Please model this.
Amino acid sequence: MIIVAIFTLSNKSRVDNQLKVSPNKFELIPVVSPTPTPTPTPKPLTFAEMNALYGPCVRLPTLMYHHVQTEEAARANKQTGLTVYTETFQKQMQYLKDKGYNTVGVSDLINFFDNGTPVPGKSILITFDDGYGDFNTDAFPILQSFGFKSTVFVSTGLVNNPGYLTWDQISSMGSVLFANHTWSHKNVGVSESAMQYEILTADTQLTDHSLNSPKVFGYPYGLETAKSEKYLESLGYKAAFTTVPGSILCKKQRFSLPRIRIGNTSLSYYGF
Model:
């Protein structure tokens, strides 16, 4: 009678070895495991392909920030992960100016979508999420010094709370577009009734303060849903921004537009 025992060994070449045991000899027979077929990495669509599928499209990098504050403040507040230090932000804006970039408003993007009005070359959008108080103290003075436009997606229920902008500060920055980021910064994947409450409450508060014109939206946490897109459209919104990376903005994706999250480093890192 022949007894067969199988042992699985491994080495750097991922070779399995089978040990045959017979009355007369032991023999190791290498058996090479088949290499699994790798899943191909999806190839990003080119501008031409995006334009054909979702156009008209425009290459318009949309920069996304949260906090802009000093390193000392960021460390004290334990907010370094969401902060671009004030000194770095100053250098980033200087870099944009030196490279000849133009800042445009969301209204320019909407005019492109709706009327075909060309967006000037080397244009960018600058956006901020949540409505932190340091936008008023640190970011806005720098933007103002360069004459740069910006959009702040503000969660209206957090206004006047510690660490956030006040309505008085918001009203004093007339050159900034303050837009809808829900009432309490809740993602729109909640129940439909809760989603509608979050969006409509913020919409009403912004309208009461003569803000959010044109109507644009920033998804908290970047999460979008088909129901929220449909609801935003029903309220007269013209565009909505995610946190999905990308710089090609297309009309048929106007409620799921990409942005580029900017970190505490040189803008040359992002290809500018």
